[in-house]
Amino acid sequence: MEKNLVENTPGLTEQRNDDSFENIWQELKWRGLVQVSTDETALEEALAGETLTYYCGFDPTAASLHLGHLVQLLTMRRIQLAGHKPLALVGGSTGLIGDPRASGERVLNTPETVAGWVQSIQDQVRPYISFEGENAARMVNNLDWTQGISAIEFLRDIGRYFRVGTMIKKDLVAKRLSSEEGLSYTEFSYQILQGLDYLQLYREYDCTLQFGGSDQWGNITSGTELVRRVENAHVHALGTPLITNSDGTKLGKSEGNAIWIDAELCSPYTFYQYWLNQADADVIDRLKVFTFRSREEIEALAREVEERPFARQAQKALAWDVTTLVHGEETTRKVIAASEALFGKGEISEIDEPTLRGASAELPVAELPAESATVVEALVATGLVGSKSEARRAVKDGGAYVNNTKVDDGEVPVSSGEWLFGQYLVLRRGKKNLAIVRSGGD
User: Fold this and answer.
1) What average pLDDT score do residues 36-64 get?
2) Is 55 annotated as a binding residue?
3) Which residue range(s) make up the domain with 225?
């Protein structure tokens, strides 16, 4: 790897915004982080002025955050680096309800489950923003100010400021109302709860900016409107664009393809490979959103993509930066070493079990009995070849490997000592076709 282009990920204390921009608003726009906002001129002036307090909310509807949340965490950090104070809201009450989804009604989780997820997500949020210094972050939980409100108080003191005509025009609400399933009053009320959050944080912390994904824009503006109606004050809002796959589907857990930041739900190996496999057309935009690299560095990587796309320097830089940010430098180095070893450029025996287990999730896998499995059987079982005769030819031609060692006899059972951690074989056909064999079966 070329260190000046790849291994250049600053830790929390070294992170900085790019001083080639006039202000943080201009940098956010250049990075593609502004999809929609309230008055742009007023918001730019506020961010370029004296310290303001802002917040972003994370609902505990799962045990982990994913890449959509990572966009918000890094945006929080960028605005904090510009001198402003973040409030990280983990929604102990809104998590009990869940915002309306386009795909149908949410399953309501128990209070005990949600409370556990609140703690888990708070722990995940903490490493991304600083809780020290003059503009130290503060963690808040909306259950603190909602659990004591009676239904009558909620309807009289908060509900009276909302107009049903406006509420049903919100994009997701309108979509669900016109669907066959419809929309429950529970989910319909979510925007009132989120609006209450902004009002509470405005009153308690003088919070004047909320941001989140643009799909939350209807809920976000419920808050700006509530503050205006109750306090006769104008506050700001910002919606970041949604990160999508090349086919346009949202990268989020509701789509079934989430890239989680919890290593137990998405292994660091899988995480690294996701970024390494970004398309040339997407990688520069991803560098802008998910890394702290400067405009100059990113433009240099853009030239690499144009002039030497085969080197994949931009993808390597992106994968290094984001994996290091989320999982740490030591883990990232292990993942890179494992990736190289799997393809014959290192010692497979040096891969630790968690990394090998993560790699196995990305490769074809077959289970065979450890006592009798042969390489010919393994090649067929994993789909690396179509038949036993083809497997025998691969061995004869010197193109079959077990744990990077060339196989001379494909009909002899693999020895017990070759099973990594007593249960894995790394099978390779040729230079690039990999599979994993796990001990098991009959």
Assistant:
1) 96
2) yes
3) 32-246
